[in-house]
Design a protein that fits this description.
The complex is a heterodimer.
Chain A lengths: L1 H20 L1 H24 L6 H31 L2 H6 L4 H15 L1 H14 L9 H25 L6 H15 L13 H6 L2 H14 L4 H32 L6
Chain B lengths: L1 H18 L5 H26 L4 H30 L3 H6 L4 H7 L1 H23 L8 H25 L6 H15 L11 H8 L4 H11 L8 H32 L6
Helix pairs in contact in B: 1-5, 1-6, 2-3, 2-6, 3-6, 3-7, 3-8, 3-10, 5-11, 6-7, 7-10, 7-11, 10-11
The chains are: A mainly alpha, B mainly alpha.
Amino acid sequence: MSHTLAVVRSSFRFHLKATLKSSATVMYMVLVPIVYATIAFFMYRGGANEVAVVWIAVAAGIMGLWSTTLAGSGMALQRERWAGTLELLFASPPPFAAVLLGVALATSATGLYSLVATLFWGWAFFHVPLHLAHPVWFAIAVPATVLALGLFGMLLAATFILYRQTFALVNLFEYPVWLITGLLVPLSLLPGWVQPIAWLIGPTWGIKAIHAATTGGSPGGYLAAAGVLALASFALGLVCLRYFETLARRRASLSLT
Amino acid sequence: MKGWLRLFFRGGLLSYRALFAWVDPRVYIPSMLGFPLFQLLFFAYVGRAASFQDDAFYVVGNAIMTSNAGAIFGTSFSIGGERWTQTLSAVLATPANRFALFVGRAVPNIANGILVSAFCFVLGCLLLDVSIGWSQVPALAVVVVVSTVSCACLGLVIGSIGLRARDAVLYANLAYFAMLVFCGVNVPLDDLPGWMAAIGRALPLTHGIEAGREIAAGGTLGDVSGLLTTEALIGCVYAGVAYALFRLFEAEGRRRASLETY
């Protein structure tokens, strides 16, 4: 167990360092949420509906968190494939799931940059008061949501083993997940069939918890739901990983690009 | 003249087929059709949540904007991609007319941009129940063509920069996001601070989107001729800058033997 945790830790540290070395990635992580936050600020400022402005900053930051998780976890295997190291990772004694978990957690942790960037942007340029209804709950809800995102990212990464055009799917999913997790659009405005999908995604509840901690409410129940679903996605990710790994080995298609 | 036209059209098409051979339906459908459509839907729903503008505003703005996904990314890669595939030296060693070689590469990407834009217009109208009269379609098509060409000219600038810079895709992304914020795609220029609106007016798309909205609301080509002329002139300026940069970086790359170095 301690060996597995050491692999997760090493994978986390290595991937975090590698990601932060890329100035293009860091710029992208910071810039993209700021772009969406800016547009959302102007849209809500000009619109008739009131919304807590601090939530727009937080929501745009979480959008960045989602994007980095989707792109980072989705592309994790693809990057190893391009680098020619995927077979080595699969063939080495430590469980590949531990490596992948470290990568998934690192990508969602780097997304925290986005949250800081949008809060600063909102405060500096849109005079958003950084007043949180429950600061302690906020401090708990954010890392919990990052963890939920990381575990969900691992499920995504596992399901992407057999799909070689991951980058196209990563692009495709970005806007839909922002929509169905109710970040800037209440779920009640979306078609009815969208809501059950949102309920099955752990980070949706984490986002609800952050929303409650930011604007007022009880985040406890949401956090519990996020935790349960995050563990479920982790378990499902492990099953998928085992199955797809066997399939890829049998077909000898692991390194095909 | 025949050789020039052949290089312009067939050369452009051949380079497109060579550089974009990796784009099969599994890539094209999610990234060129799915992503722009979801972008349109996302902003339309945020607009509904904020009670900001009607759905037609977002359909027109985003459908015209999405043409630049092909026009900017595709065109910039059509130039810079030669460097990535290590074929730039071979291309530039030929005595081919540089203008035909350079601008011809934008043509397939412009066609792709128009296709993406048309797809987003149709699906956006159907999914959001937006009604644009059939009589407005030809004028709207002219607006889309002019805007896409103008965007492709900006793509040529980025492609030329890609002859020197390490990561042209990053610049293409920056241009994409800049246009999303500054060009009045989802927020009218009147609602943006003056300096942001001024930047928007110097970029492609801004005048095209404004013209598109007027036409969707019942205007005619005559009503928006000024806007379209401005959009076309902006495109010409970017094309001129792109060509100058291309020749500059070509000459410098030859002199320093750095055409394909990173």
